[in-house]
Amino acid sequence: MSEILRVDFHTHIISENFLNLAEKYNDDHWPVLEKTCSCGAKIMIQGKNFREITNQAWDAEERIRDMDKEGIDVQVLSPIPVTFSYWADGKKGLEMAAFQNDFIASIVKQHPDRFIGLGTVPLQDVDLAIQEMERAVLELNLKGLEIGSNVNGQNLDDEQLEPFFKAAHELKVPLFVHPWATVGRERMPRHNFMYMVGMPSETALAAGSIIMSGMLDRYPDLKICFAHGGGSLPYLLPRMDKGFEVWPHIQKTVEPPSYYAKKLYYDSLVYEPKNLQFMIEEFGTDRIIAGSDYPFLLRETPSGKVVDHLDKLSEEEKAKIHGLNAIQFLGLDAGAYQKKIEHTK
């Protein structure tokens, strides 16, 4: 274990006994988990291998062994984005979300000192999404939600989604936005571009939609964190500010886009210290949260490695990014959490 609290905010988990809605509803659009051995599985969609995963994706004990080896005190657990299934009927989507929320809550209950849970909701039906959000945080004690970057091709500023964000603001539910169903995916079948280019572009579009919508004026205490360092957003902000300046008819906010970008949070998964340094200069150390994308191939090992390579940061600033910012973002007591972690060391 490390001397400072280290939280990996960006990790994904799935039940080994994953719900098989493809079989239940005779619809192979649903993701299905097919075990290939005790140590691995394939996520199948329409009879095709969408993604291969290891038992790290479901085995809590395996995760804890990795955490101990890599010096990570706490993982924040969230679903694998392909399971969002926003394309489905709302009630069936609720069934999928509720199953995952129950599973994540059970893992946290078994290991409360090592895991914090984020839930998921069926955003294709806002009323059901709000209902499940309330259950997830008020009954299951999950500490926030992971949501997708778009809902069936509609950006997050779509007016039909407004009641959801209003409810999240009122309930003080933190939101972690992860890319899925990426923009331009029909042009990215080669080179694994969906992961390398599509996801960062999709994340920037999602963040830009929130920023330009006026939502952060209406709901000033809304907490939203974007995966993968906000994707390409940090580097697009000057262009967005210029567009805001020259096209008054698009203005829905009081201030330019760069002002609101500083009110959002971003994980640290950018790999390159120069990129992270640029983000810190733009947004400040209080808005960056260490996250690795465990247990997937593109993950950073260990979480926060890029933070440790920044010589300009003080130890206090590194401690914020490594763990304290995550605890603060999730509305937890950092001091109490630090004491609880120290007790286990």
UniProtKB/TrEMBL annotation:
It comes from Oceanobacillus piezotolerans. Belongs to the metallo-dependent hydrolases superfamily. ACMSD family. GO terms for cellular component: cytosol. It holds the Pfam family Amidohydro_2. Keywords: Decarboxylase, Hydrolase, Lyase, Metal-binding, Zinc. Residues 7-332 form the Amidohydrolase-related domain. Monomer. GO terms for molecular function: aminocarboxymuconate-semialdehyde decarboxylase activity; hydrolase activity; metal ion binding. Its EC number is 4.1.1.45. Signal peptide: none annotated. Pathway: Secondary metabolite metabolism; quinolate metabolism. It is an enzyme of class 4 (lyase). The keyword Transcription does not apply. The lineage of its organism: Bacteria, Bacillati, Bacillota, Bacilli, Bacillales. This is 2-amino-3-carboxymuconate-6-semialdehyde decarboxylase. The keyword tRNA-binding does not apply. GO terms for biological process: secondary metabolic process.
